[in-house]
Amino acid sequence: MSKKFRIAGINFDHFHMGDLLRMVHEHPDAELAAICDEQPERMREAQRNFSIPDDRIFTDVDACMEKARPDVVILCPAAARHGEYVARVAKYGVHVLVEKPFAATLAEADAMVAAMPRGKLLAINWPLRWAECAVTAKRIIDEGIIGEPRGFHHYGGNRGPLYHGADKMEKEPTAEEKAASWFYQKSAGGGSLLDYLGYGTTIGTWFMGGRVPLEVTAVTDEPPGLEVDEHSIVVVRYESGLSKCETRWGTFTDPWTHQPQPKCGFVVWGTAGTVSCYDYEPIVRVQTCAKPEGFEIPCDTLRAPERNPVEYFLDRIATGRALEGPLSPEISRIGQQIVDGAVQSAREKRTVKLPA
To answer: Directed axis angle between helix 192-207 and helix 132-142, to 10°?
Structure first.
């Protein structure tokens, strides 16, 4: 790339902002032009980690955009504020990378797409897209090794959203922190279903080649003292059969330290075999008609510019190539349709047709 991209990180609701800013800091063609959050204390760690001068620190979005003049904005607000923040920055004619989920509702997701100016990209980052096991499983599916994909299982979660921060630093949340966190507020888009279901539905849609399901059935737990769920089970019906996604806050261990039981990850089955990819493992396991006993395949090594979302996004902007897979609004919208159906199903305690 010949261009040096000026990038602003706006809203630190989601701790993944720290991870994304590190990717910007380490990219040779990116400059961290500004960071912005209404609560200055939430930016202090990033300012220290990346040696950001005071004149690049903002608490007002418009002031940040007008003074820093970024080319790209990274957004990490609470799920229910994604639409609001995309609209606030898109009017400045920038490309936008939003940390997962797409949105709290399908209507909000559609409004985000509509808010983007012509010629500017909107991408949704799903961190599992950069897991070597998931990328390898997708290659195996695309090569036809398991035949035509017919369904998948996903189990996703961790000990809880407040048990770790940027760079997966472990911490023990207090009751006060939990009560104050947007993750536990229904109006902000909290709950394990909205936090994790999009992983299963969006990456699963990618594995299924963009196939759209017919209907959704969901059940969530109702933890005493909380207004959001910590556990959900969702059944998605396709013409080819049933798929299942399960979300869990409260796994015995975090999958990036020790895989819990059940393991976090995917199993995909097709007309000629199966493939499993479990989070952070160095291999995927495959069964085929020729080898029904199964065999292991080492995970592919990710190479530039496909190693992380910042690298990928800047490459797509520079080359003019279209976004693909989970980062594209098209695939993420199908995932959001399923999430919306699951929310409705859990609320009404019945199976619902896929929202349009």
So the answer is: 30
